[in-house]
Amino acid sequence: MSTRFIDFLDSYNTKIVYNELENNILNTIIQCHFIEANLSDPAFSGKKPVLPQKKIDISQNHFSYWHQAMDPEPFSLFQTKYSIWQTKHEADVNFLLSPNIKPKPRVIIDASMQTISDVISVIENTEYSENNEYNIDLKALCNIKSELIQLNSMIGMESMKKSVLEQLIYFVQELHVGKDKETSDFKHTVIYGPPGTGKTEIAKIIGKMYSKLGILKNNIFKKVTRNDLIAGYLGQTAIKTRKVIDECIGGVIFIDEAYSLANSEREDSYSKECLDILCESLSDHKNDLMVIIAGYEDELNDTFFRVNKGLESRFIWRFTMEEYNAKELLQIFKKKVLEIGWIFENETSIVEKWFEDKKANFKHFGRDMELLLTYVKIGHGRRVYGKDSELRKKITLEDMNHGHEVFLKNKRLKKEPAFMHGIYV
């Protein structure tokens, strides 16, 4: 039994893969044969024949007929049976243009990452390939590898690092994005902790990570103080505050010791004007702005969040920086020594107990370690002056003790207020 031409084409389509040129040629042949066979049929076109019968005889002059038949005017007259037929039988162009598409191999990665170290381990032990499909966004994580290493190398802060990891995993899956892809959850963050615990550095790392991930569109990080936001008279504060916000759209505004923007005892009309505008902008720019504030938790609650009650609900991410213990202070000090190219003459003589005995004097942690190192270097310079050059830049226990004595003399040990009340410009 012979097979109809159209049946042959249908079966042929399922057996071979066409490229784009073959598809165009085949469709042209199909249309040409069908039109030539039915163009003069009123039942097909719904009109009287629009071309002379002699033009339909392709054996006499095929190309003459075809050029006339392709004229848009006569073609517009018949869109009945042919349109129906074409819908049913026209080849799937999308399929034909992608003849060699195969499902990408799926690579399953253990996603039970509990620490930043786990994430870094996955990145380093899994080579990313565009030809593979992964159960996690490995490409995004690879893009922020340097920031993750920088964060992980910071001494201590294990609880804070876990909190940042939770935020990262949430954002990298785009769970913060609304159904319409136009709205987003708040990204605004509070970092609780005393001075010298690395809050500014953490804020910079967070901003850079989210810029690389595309969560923030611009790599902008601006650290501001009260003077950057509040003017000396009403009206100008609004202008200054809005200017800072506009400059940071798509990036991060970082306000360290944010309680300086307000006070806990008296109403400050300048502060209120600033914080009211800031609160409004936190909502208006929730999709394209991240504001990070930092300071002691109690002071922030008594000042910053007290002046405008709407602020607290907009800062949904809260990280806590723990105070450094003696062991971590020792690690910080040693790290700073090595970073400047100095060494210890006898490293075993600089022990954890030395820092434990003096920890009460180091209220500002990392900042105090930097200050201590300065005084240690000064004492060292006095000790090695006029002696063999090989002794230089080798810190001894004597240098440490001398540096600590100078540190105490130059540092006011009486308790300083965490913030100054009634700061007015």
UniProtKB/TrEMBL annotation:
Keyword Nucleotide-binding listed: yes
Domain AAA+ ATPase: 185-329
CDD domains, A to Z: AAA
Keywords assigned: ATP-binding, Nucleotide-binding
GO MF, one example: ATP hydrolysis activity
Gene3D superfamilies linked to this entry: P-loop containing nucleotide triphosphate hydrolases
PANTHER family with a match to the protein in the record: AAA-TYPE ATPASE FAMILY PROTEIN / ANKYRIN REPEAT FAMILY PROTEIN, AAA-TYPE ATPASE FAMILY PROTEIN _ ANKYRIN REPEAT FAMILY PROTEIN
Similarity remark: Belongs to the CbxX/CfxQ family.
UniProt protein name: AAA+ ATPase domain-containing protein
Provenance organism: viral metagenome
